[in-house]
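Thread: "does anyone have the structure for this chain?"

Original post by V.I.:
We have the sequence but no experimental structure in hand. Need at least a predicted one for the grant figures.
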Amino acid sequence: IPELVNAVDFGKGPYDANVGNFGTAGYVNLRTKDRLQSSSISAEAGMFGTKRLVGLLDILPSKRNQSAYLALEHKFSDGPFESSQLFNRTNIVGKYVNYFDGKSKLSLTASHFTSNWDASGQIPQRAVDAGMISRFGAIDDTEGGETSRTNLQADFYKQINATTYSKTNVYLTHYDFLLFSNFTFFLEDSANGDQIKQYEDRMMYGLTSSVVNKTNLGAVELTSEAGISLRNDYSKGNELSKTMNRSTTQFFIQRGDVQETNYGAYASTNIEYRKFSFIPSVRVDEFQFQYTDALAPTYTKLSQRKAVVSPKAKALYTLDNVQLYAKSGIGFHSNDSRVVLMNEADDILPRAFGNDLGFIYKKGNLLLNAAIWNLYLEQEFVYVGDAGIVEPSGETQRRGIDLGARWQIGSHVFASVDGTYTQARSLEDNEGQNFIPLAPKYTGVFSLGVKDWNNWNASINGRYLGDRPAKEDYSITAEGYTVLDANLNYTWKHVTIGAQFQNILNTEWNETQFATESRLRGESQSVEEIHFTPGTPFYGQLGVKYAF
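Reply from O.Q.:
Generated one for you, tokens below.
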């Protein structure tokens, strides 16, 4: 529920010891609010039959050392497609926080999410060009699915003494997922079509716990952190099957139980001396993979263990208005358990080697940042959904330049712009055959906003994604786009009235694009070309909120 997000923490590259599996290109961490400013109800309605209701209830508004709230959201939309999407989503979140004696803090969070939808899927460009369907039409509109997630989470912070504190997070999640797709239409089965079903029922639990200590050695200040982590995933009845019209299962492609356990430990020290900081760190992870293949003729539980060590380091030097930094580190990305155990993959925990060199400049109301970076992957993976396999694509390297600016133009006017240039290549293919499919060369975002000006808030936001290769030889291009969005709202006492607009120039853009080989009904031969999901056309939405 966006109204509950308090902050978004993020980091680039494999440079943070407290981030383990998948921490290669970076990480994102959303933090929810501990306390609501007020209770509120809001209603929104927009084009394509879209409706959204949100209720936020502050349960302990008068308590100083405690807070609690309950939030509920429901959204429905037909979407812009010719076959109604019938999208339903419900979220419910409850959170309780107790600050005890000012030295300890306990947060308890429970949430449940459920959603279901119909889908028109990815459509081939040739069908649109020939006039068979529109951009918002479908070849197979029986696609769709449903999913839900239930979370229980506890966070505990304790100030042990003046220089030491601890943090612990414990969580339990149940997740289920059902998806029907048809990527190739009648390529494999000219009579019944190529619809597939993906199903998963997963239970996940884990914890992270760390201790932070600050001490001084003369003019040197040391901030040390040590932590442990555990995550266990158990997916029962994991299924990939060939189906027809969602109702008939023709045969199973994969079926079984997956269990993956990750134990982790890390340590880091921030060594500060005057304007210089040096942060060495190391992380150690061990994985246990288990898979029980339900399609095997006899019961067999496959199992394997693997450990990986990930050293990292950061160096920062701060001048009056400039901070210079250099970062280097090793991260990793676990492989699919089924591939590890059934196909005996060589790279079970392939590593990522990253380097960043950049600066941050701040003076007055202006902030600038720039960086050059490099990321090398020992093994890149591509998931082939209709085949149920993870294909290794060899070693890859990405190099790039990041530029950004933040400017407070006036007391109420803010602007920001970010741009990236990236060269992404496979290291195991010949020149001209070594492009990484769908890896962008140029990206950009910008925003211009007015905040709290006579009760008005408004912004215009844009995003740009350049053309990119859809195949390794760049013989097929995934087309780029520029899309502009805007929003405007006015608050009067307890009431806020707002409007949101997406794609205000009604740009024709594609949200997803893949080079896919498919065959339509009646075609004698298959064709490989761009298959895409169209991006949202011009969309408008009005809303009203009442706070109490």
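V.I.: this helps a lot. The two ends are 19 Å apart (CA to CA).
O.Q.: and The longest strand covers residues 248-273.
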